[in-house]
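Encode chain A's predicted structure.
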Amino acid sequence: MRVAFPELRDMIATTQNRAFCVLHQINFIMKTEKFLQFNGKTIYFQSYDGQFWIAIKPICEVLNVSYNPQVLALKNDVFFKDAYTLQYMHDSSNRLQKMICLPEKYIYGWLFSINSSSEEFLEYKKECYEILYNYFHGTITGRKELLKKKVEIDIELTKAENELIENPAYIKIQELKKKQSEVNKGLKNNDQKVIQETITLFNYAQENN
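Encoded structure for chain A:
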């Protein structure tokens, strides 16, 4: 029994480790979702610890970019060297492998750090530039148009008010609005006074109990 016990213990430990690995892979598969479809290929991301992790190798393959130079650049980059990690991820053949991954919030910036003359990559980069231009240009021109409309409305409003300023009905409306404002202010002050008196009475009752 003394000889068999360590062997049994090792066997149980090995079985537990295998079970843990299987459960980890099952858990991973359940949390894996599609990230991007490009040229008929699918890239997956993994949800882990509240973040989405994306492997860089499948992206390099899809964009026809050399993988090893990108890994080297990633590891030597002042920022990205502390951002990547190893995660189980599906490769291009849908096999589960441990890969270098980046959080989704960094993956888009990393894409712009790639230096490649690949036709697929250059086409993708061009599309990204178009999207960025349309977004920021649209924001700037959109604000400009809104400011222009605001000025036009302010001018028309001032013009209309000036035309009505001598109108008896308009004068009456302005007087009533002023009185309404004074009444609302009086109601607010009265309510605050009632609340304060109620609090004072309550405190007095508490102190005399």
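Residues 86 and 99 are 5 Å apart (CA to CA).
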